[in-house]
Specification:
The structure is a homodimer of 326-residue chains. Chain A is an alpha/beta fold and 326 residues long. Chain A has helices at 6-20, 32-40, 65-71, 76-85, 98-109, 144-160, 182-192, 205-210, 220-245, 249-269, 271-274, 294-310, 313-324; strands at 26-30, 50-54, 91-94, 119-126, 129-134, 168-171, 199-203, 215-217, 277-280, 285-288. Chain A has a domain at 120-274: 3-Layer(aba) Sandwich (Isopropylmalate Dehydrogenase). Chain A is 51% helix and 15% strand. In chain A, strand 4 (119-126) and strand 5 (129-134) form a beta hairpin. In chain A, helix 1 crosses helix 12 (294-310), helix 3 (65-71) packs across helix 5 and helix 6 (144-160) packs across helix 13. Chains A, B: It is an enzyme of class 2 (transferase).
């Protein structure tokens, strides 16, 4: 029921995902009449693979996590997570209120043993490919132990996505040992002693985009600011390029020729909009699609959930945590 | 003596600034023989406006602030700051080690009454013009009181640069009151009660680039990560655009046509390289030019110092602090 474009674009994304992946089954959770109406406009859909589960309430973008937890026992978000907890589905994908989704996920699914707080991770494009950046805003104040847990989770997630011996780094304002705040310095000490983790040290903001690490760890305040400012900057650059190209006849012609190139670039540079962000550290797979992602974005979020199911990410994470955590 | 390109490009920038501004006098501080040799290759320069002051030592980029403070009593950086403290010059511009420059500035010049820690500020381009972002890395752990002081200093700096009633915002991970860490929430309370300050609330990373505020306040850890990741992203985008344009014959032709447009954009988007960053809150004007700025960048840093001299920024700041601080 969530997302800036509402269930219409989510249903569209689901229909597209079902045709792309013949083994996929989807359950839509929300107001049945509305969902059935939206599905009805796609008569070719295989209804054996697309079911609807009723939920009377909806969590709005303005609802506080506490309201989601205590005030709406039959919200679509909660019902979806309960289906996951009860083994009726293998992953939950939502485009709704992030804070509510995190609070409900922790409450309904619980964290893995050894994990205090789940983290939110997304793939960020770099000069050399992608890096997994976490936390993206779920945890504002983090201790060194939390950052250590994020590093372990990010490393396992990167492995699941196909990276061999992922290079794990802490985001910092310099690469020397003396740089940074207490949490970061202490987390570095913890990570230096961790067996089986390819910890490479500190990385700076520009080093992240140069592709110096496969996993970049920071607290949720810093990660959220980095992600949103990057999105804002990418949008500003796109706007300026358009404006430059419109200035005179020559640049208009150049601009018209360059347009398809620019479109590809823009799509590549808005990863959080286009790919989902995963919640790591829960006893279950939860993927958050960007609220303004649209059809394509929600489809990518479903695809990320599929990979995590195939790779059995929570179970892999559980095994690695048993090895690594004290 | 500092900067990635050394004194050669600094001397070049000085010569260019002297011809651009007939009222400007410059004093170069460092190894006299080297500096005189570099000046000698510009025979047209008006030596009445370009003097040299000797300093035997140089602070390297790897020197710790403690080394700068205690181990090198005759460093070019320290001697330049002492000239400023003694009223022999009106501002100090350096492309050297940032941490050393900040430590020496505090030690030699002292902070203004009411300021615990100086902050580093730079103008960041936005969709609507520029915003002053501070702190950029001088203060890693900040209390709410520090953030409040940064807000006051940023507002006065924006006014000096020509902005009427600058909109001051705190950088946060959401715009609702409940969002953020303790320091940010407490700083919001302090700012809401400040007379004569146009505090507009929280701004997010994307809001900064949308131009929602004229002054954006954060701790030095967050500001440094934001600034460097923005530089890294802008570089990555420029690299990708170049690569896109090289793919085939059509895109090569488009790329050749678009090149001058792209160059202008790149120049506009690397503000920290192109404009200097000011240290605010000191009893004197200190501008830090980016180490890799080159001739143009150092010239811009000198231009920023000139504006701050004309606007008598430290004195304005002192007056405003007396009005605003408890």
């Amino acid at each position: 029921m969530g997302g800036d474009f509402g269930p219409r674009s989510i249903v569209q994304a689901c229909i597209a995902s079902l045709s792309a992946t013949p083994s996929l089954h989807l359950t839509l959770v929300g107001q049945p009449s509305l969902l059935e109406e939206l599905i009805a406009s796609h008569p070719a859909v295989d209804r054996a693979r697309l079911t609807v589960t009723a939920a009377r309430e909806t969590i709005s973008m303005d609802d506080k996590p506490a309201t989601a937890l205590r005030g709406k026992p039959d919200s679509s978000m909660r019902v979806a997570l309960e289906l996951l907890r009860d083994g009726k589905v293998q992953a939950c994908v939502s485009a709704g209120n992030t804070g509510a989704l995190m609070a409900l996920s922790r409450h309904v699914l619980k964290t893995l043993p050894g994990i205090d707080r789940p983290a939110m991770v997304a793939a960020i494009p770099t000069q050399k490919g992608y890096c997994q950046l976490l936390d993206l805003g779920a945890n504002v104040d983090c201790t060194a132990e939390h950052l250590f847990q994020f590093a372990v989770m990010g490393s396992v997630a990167a492995e699941a996505l196909g990276v061999t011996r992922p290079r794990v780094a802490l985001l910092n304002i310099g690469t020397e040992d003396i740089k940074g705040n207490q949490q970061v310095k202490l987390a570095a000490t913890l990570l230096q002693g961790a067996r089986g983790l390819n910890y490479i040290g500190f990385v700076e903001g520009d080093g992240l985009y140069r592709g110096e690490a496969d996993v970049v760890v920071c607290d949720g305040f810093v990660g959220n600011i980095l992600l949103k400012s990057s999105e804002g900057l990418a949008t500003m650059i796109a706007t300026r390029i358009e404006a430059l190209f419109k200035q005179n006849l020559v640049s208009r012609v150049v601009g018209a020729l360059a347009l398809p190139l620019m479109r590809r670039l823009q799509a590549d540079l808005a990863p959080a909009r286009h790919n989902g962000a995963s919640f790591l550290g829960l006893q279950g797979i939860v993927v958050k699609s960007h609220g303004s992602a649209g059809v394509q974005g929600f489809q990518s979020a479903i695809a990320r959930a599929l990979i995590e199911i195939q790779e059995n990410l929570p179970q892999r994470l559980r095994g690695r945590l048993e090895d690594l955590l004290p």
